[in-house]
Design brief:
Helix content: under 10%
Number of strands: 17
CATH topology: Porin
Largest sheet: 16 strands, antiparallel, barrel
Radius of gyration: 27 Å
CATH class: Mainly Beta
Distance between the termini: 77 Å
Length: about 375
């Protein structure tokens, strides 16, 4: 006997089946990730004359005594933490903390073997499709680049010889348009810093902080090639202020600079460099060879820059060389001051498969004082491992 199914059942069957079917799986929420990284780095060094800092020097001292010396250090070891979250305020977020042990040494019989922890960089970055907001401590917007080096990590190579590098608290915003060819407009507000040393523990406002004004920077960047390995050229400008009681009755002194930087890769070759022309910019990490004011208390004028070429066409090996110069206006340099600082280097790195890294670097320092030229050379050997 044929069995008849009511029409209502036929009509309601799909709905009942859908009702009883398991709910579709909810797509997993974007995951937040935390990554730890580091470079444990041992450096051995030999210098044939007096320099301002024996393990990571920036200039030769005006000293003719026999001061050749050798030593070793592990205080350029770096540790890092990276936080990423792909869904924050309609964009993605990354936060990075970068520390080393270059904060000085504890007074002790161990000396250099008791290094102090130091925060290098600490930044948070919000990234949208065409814009970016960064806050934290980072290199100046107008001088983001530094040379490749395993010998000079605590201070980037060419610090005091054309490299404006000092990591500074700041907030910056960038807007970029284009894909294969990209144009970016950037602006930053930075904490005012004059570059004068602070005391061991308590801090007091320096001449830039007493201006009660932040420093301002802008940069126009043009890039091409892959986003993760870009070629770029850029121009920038810096404007800051400092207060000096010795000039015109508590007057403000302008700190300003124009800059240019570039990174260009072709095949296994990479060329990177920066240039600046400005005044009273020691607070950016060495402009004027660390001299802010002229003999009469006015702003000390200076120009300089650095360039480096690297070749990575050999298996697991990188070789390169570069030079930097900081050249203050001789008329502005006070008696006994530094008139010019030139540093040249050649380096070799071997990074075999796995975590190990080895390198060597030769650097030559020639510093001109009002009393004459003084030179020093350093040979540095490095060995480390990454994680």
């Amino acid at each position: 006997m044929r069995r008849f199914v009511p029409l209502a059942a036929l009509l309601l069957a799909p709905a009942l089946a859908a009702q009883n079917a398991p709910a579709p799986a909810t797509p997993p929420a974007p995951e937040r990730t935390i990554q730890f990284s580091g470079l444990v780095l041992v450096n051995g060094f030999f210098a044939n004359a007096r320099v301002n800092n024996s393990d990571v020097p920036q200039l030769a001292l005006a000293d003719t005594s026999d001061a050749a010396a050798s030593g070793g250090t592990i205080r350029q070891t770096r540790l890092g933490v990276l936080l990423t979250d792909p869904a924050v305020l309609g964009g993605s977020f990354s936060g990075e903390l970068d520390v080393d042990f270059f904060g000085g040494q504890q007074p002790s019989s161990g000396g250099r073997t008791f290094p102090l922890l130091r925060v290098r960089r600490a930044v948070g970055t919000l990234q949208w499709k065409h814009s970016q907001f960064l806050f934290g401590q980072e290199s100046p917007l107008v001088a983001e680049r530094s040379p490749r080096s395993l010998a000079s990590v605590g201070f980037p190579d060419f610090a005091g010889a054309g490299n404006l590098w000092l990591w500074t608290p700041q907030a910056r915003f960038s807007f970029e348009t284009g894909y294969s060819l990209r144009l970016a407009l950037q602006g930053a507000v930075l904490a005012p810093i004059s570059g004068t040393p602070q005391t061991t523990f308590t801090t007091q406002p320096d001449s830039a902080e007493r201006s009660r004004r932040p420093s301002l920077e802008g940069r126009l960047r043009f890039g091409w090639g892959p986003a993760d390995d870009p070629n770029e050229i850029a121009i920038g400008g810096h404007l800051g202020w400092s207060r000096s009681d010795s000039v015109g009755g508590d007057s403000l002194i302008d700190s300003r600079a124009i800059t240019a930087d570039a990174r260009v890769a072709f095949g296994p070759f990479e060329i990177i460099g920066e240039f600046f022309n400005g005044q009273a910019i020691a607070g950016l990490g060495g402009g004027g060879i660390g001299q802010n004011l002229a003999a009469g208390g006015d702003a000390l004028r200076s120009q300089g820059g650095w360039a480096q070429i690297n070749f990575s066409g050999l298996r697991h090996v990188i070789i390169g060389a570069g030079c930097g110069v900081d050249d203050p206006d001789d008329r502005d340099v006070p008696a006994g001051g530094r008139l010019q600082n030139v540093v040249c280097e050649g380096h070799f790195e071997w990074r075999p498969p796995g975590p190990l890294v080895f390198g060597s670097e030769y650097r030559r320092f020639t510093t001109r004082y009002t009393s004459g030229d003084f030179s020093a050379s350093q040979i540095n050997l490095a060995a480390g491992y990454r994680f």
